[in-house]
Amino acid sequence: MNKTVPFTLEQAQAWRDRFGTPFYVYDESAIRKTVSDVQKAFSWNKGFCECFAVKATPTPAIIRLLASMGCGTDCASISELAISKASGLSGRRIVLTSNETSDDTYRSAVELGAIVNLDDITQIDVLEKAAGIPDTVCLRVNPGSFSFTSGIMGNLQDSKFGLTKDQLFEAYSILKKKNVKHFGLHCMAASCCMDGTYYPLLAEMLFNLVVEIKEKLGIQIEIVDFGGGVGIPYRETEKAVDILSVGAKVKEVYDSILVPQGMEVAIYTEMGRFITGPHGYLVTSVRGFKHIYKEYVGLDATACDLIRPAMYGAYHHITVLGKENAPKDTTVDVVGGLCENNDKFAIDRALPNVDYGDILVIHDAGAHGRSMGYNYNGMLRCGELLMDGKGEVKLIRRSESLDDLFSTFDVDSEFNY
Ligand SMILES: *Cc1c(COP(=O)(O)O)cnc(C)c1O
Predict the structure, then answer these.
(1) Strands (E), 28-122
(2) Is the pTM of this model over 0.90?
(3) How many Å apart are CA 209 and CA 220, to the nearest integer?
(4) Is 93 in contact with 118 (CB distance < 8 Å)?
(5) From CA 88, how far away is CA 379, in angstroms rounded?
(6) Residue 270: CB within 6 Å of ligand 1?
(7) Which residues does 79 contact at the CB level (< 8 Å), separation at least 6?
(8) Which domains can be identified in the chain, with CATH numbers?
């Protein structure tokens, strides 16, 4: 996939004058297009809902935008539930998929009418004591093995998530005895999967389980949740997943397994990366050079703004704005200023000749980007802009200030900094 930037150098310079760099900018029209593609792909399924994984981009303006298009959220914490609530969501538009969950988090989910998705059989008791057992409960299965072991999540038997299949059956029958009326089944078996057969294969496994659960326990599953995990092309050599064809293949599986049984389920997806990942850009300025054993280009952004390269060695494409057509005749490490040698956005990257003050755009940062930010070295996390169809931006999260940093310290108001 050819990597282009949906704004010009002049626009980025004007934004830098107003807000300073670094900042994130999200392309609203492109997010809308992706959401409507996903909805089109599953339009054949009556109850379909994309419950966006809040952790990918936990900014209310983004969640509100998605909610206005009919999306819900998948939450892992009380904060993500609060962001969903503040964005106008409630009820079955919210899924709580959480681990080592606090009582407060369960209570908050039940108060919101959210679908509670339990990660372990022991959580039935924990939920009951904390909040009572709600009408609707979902269970997360870990099938142990699955044809997709690729991606960041790795081998499922090494994955901490979900119930074994035996525990799943036992948990459903316990929940039935506790008068649960509506049941969901959830599985997320891959991360950043670029293969379009992932959801169809997952659907086959889950729909067969739905039939088996009906036969063995007399329980009709109403919601089948595929989780997230659909990948995006970080590299120019990769091809985007064709979500329309994925939806059509899932329909074939649905028609062959559930329809003959006279069964209907609502399909939920919890894509995060696929929805916003390609449509967010980290915009940063060049502030230094080094010529030592290697060549370095230093930025005003650090791993505190985007940790994926440091954490997973993840590739993020980089454009030097205004030099898109210049020959890439230097090879450099692109680094931030943290006191950590893994604070590198790229290693041995071919780039055009870069000058002080040039604006670099780091692509595919719209998911698991700003949200994984942190304050190491006292770095203040950067702000976020939302760009509309006319190329106008709105500040949807300001950058952090020293006041924000000091707000959690035990110092009195007279303290001078
Ligand atoms: C992380 C996560 C997602 C979203 O994953 P993406 O790779 O961003 O699509 C969805 N559901 C659950 C339970 C997750 O943990």
Answers:
(1) 49-53, 72-75, 94-97, 115-118
(2) yes
(3) 11
(4) no
(5) 32
(6) yes
(7) 58
(8) 28-277 (3.20.20.10), 278-401 (2.40.37.10)
Provide φ and ψ at 71, rounded to 5°.
-80, 160
Which residues make beta-bridge pairs with 308?
Answer: none
Cβ(97) – ligand 1 distance below 6 Å: yes
Residues 88, 45: contact at Cβ < 8 Å?
no
Cα(51)–Cα(273) distance, integer angstroms: 12
Half-sphere exposure of 25 (CA within 13 A, CB side): 27
H-assigned helices in 281-414? 308-312, 402-406
Smallest Cα–Cα separation from 192: which of 238, 230, 150, 144? 230
CB of 227 closer than 6 angstroms to any ligand 1 atom: yes
Catalytic residue among 75, 187, 192, 339: 339
Nearest C-alpha neighbor of 224 from the set 262, 181, 186, 169: 186
Q: Phi and psi at residue 308, in whole multiples of 5°?
A: -55, -45
Q: Which two tokens stand for residue 107?
A: 């209570």
pLDDT of residue 151 exceeding 70, the answer is no
Q: What is the pLDDT of residues 232-263, one digit of tens each?
A: 999 999 999 999 999 999 999 999 999 999 99
Task: Report yes or no: 1 and 240 within 8 Å, Cβ to Cβ.
Answer: yes
Question: Which of the listed residues 50, 119, 270, 274 should we mutate to test ligand 1's pocket, taking the one with most ligand atoms within 8 A of CB?
Answer: 270
Task: Tell me what percent of the residues of the chain surpass a pLDDT of 70.
Answer: 97
Is 339 considered catalytic here? yes
Q: Which tens digit of pLDDT belongs to each residue from 78-135? A: 999 999 999 999 999 999 999 999 999 999 999 999 999 999 999 999 999 999 999 9
> Does residue 70 sit in helix, strand or coil?
coil
The stretches of 132-242 forming alpha helices (DSSP H) are 165-177, 198-217
Look at residues 221, 231, 236 and name the one whose alpha carbon lies nearest to residue 180.
221
Is the separation of the CB atoms in 235 and 317 below 8 Å?
A: yes
